[in-house]
């Protein structure tokens, strides 16, 4: 990918669908994940602590495991789904809708968080998997996963539109913008570069 200068412009956008209905649902206000999923996190913690009577320490461990699992899922989806290079016309069209448009218009403020039409079915899918894997411990782990997802969405939005001037946040911003403006085949971690280091995709 050719390097280009970074300019934050919340108004940069492109129409993706002829249908006004489809176009409407392709745009999401960045506060939507907070409104949808923070109550889910709270409820799952309530189930773990007050209904299942797990200790605070146990729930904290399950919550941390959920966050760790999210960082791995984020990495795998970004690397192997979002950056899969299809050969067919339909595949290329779907790839553009899912992620290509974000690389062409990285500062489109309404296309920086996942639409609920995608995130809600995925949430049910992962909760079902967690019930199979973790059984009664699933709510605590799922709370961490969902919290990790919300942090990812908020951090991704902030990376493109907030001035991060120092410390870890500035480093994460620079790390992600290198993925956009220098080399999109590395730096797949957004909320955490952990798995880039594990799988050696920090640089080529």
Description:
By secondary structure, this protein is mainly α. Helices cover 65% and strands 0% of the residues. The protein has eight helices and no strands. Helix 2 runs antiparallel to helix 6, helix 3 packs across helix 6 and helix 5 packs antiparallel against helix 6. The longest helix is centred in the middle third of the chain and has 27 residues. It is globular.
Write the layout of secondary structure elements.
Blueprint: H1 20-25, H2 32-51, H3 56-82, H4 89-104, H5 116-134, H6 138-161, H7 167-181, H8 194-198
Helix pairs in contact: 2-6, 3-6, 5-6
SSE sequence, one letter per element: HHHHHHHH
Query: Uncertain segments of ≥5 residues (pLDDT<50)?
Result: 1-9
| Number of E-state strands | 0
- Quote the distance from N terminus to C terminus: 13 Å
Helix content bin:
55-70%
Q: How much is the average pLDDT?
A: 85
Kindly provide the radius of gyration, computed on alpha-carbon positions and rounded to a whole number of angstroms: 18 Å
Specify the biggest β-sheet.
Answer: none
SS-based structural class? mainly alpha
Compute the number of structural domains: 1
Total helices: the number is: 8
Q: Which percent band covers the strand fraction? A: under 5%
Which shape, going by the Cα principal axes? globular
């Amino acid at each position: 990918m050719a390097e280009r200068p970074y300019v934050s412009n919340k108004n940069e956008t492109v129409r993706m669908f002829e249908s006004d209905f489809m176009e409407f649902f392709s745009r999401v206000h960045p506060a939507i994940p907070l409104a949808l999923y923070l109550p889910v996190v709270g409820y799952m913690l309530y189930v773990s602590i007050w209904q299942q009577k797990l200790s605070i320490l146990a729930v904290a461990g399950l919550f941390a495991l959920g966050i760790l699992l999210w960082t791995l899922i984020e990495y795998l989806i970004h690397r192997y789904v979002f950056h899969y290079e299809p050969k067919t016309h339909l595949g290329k069209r779907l790839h553009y809708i899912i992620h290509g448009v974000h690389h062409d218009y990285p500062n489109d403020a309404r296309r920086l968080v996942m639409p609920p039409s995608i995130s809600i079915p995925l949430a049910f899918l992962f909760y079902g998997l967690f019930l199979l894997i973790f059984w009664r411990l699933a709510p605590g782990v799922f709370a961490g996963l969902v919290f990790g997802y919300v942090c990812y969405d908020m951090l991704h939005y902030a990376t493109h539109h907030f001035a991060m001037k120092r410390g870890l946040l500035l480093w994460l911003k620079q790390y992600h913008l290198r993925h956009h403006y220098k080399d999109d085949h590395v730096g797949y971690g957004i909320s955490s570069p952990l798995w880039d280091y594990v799988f050696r995709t920090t640089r080529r």
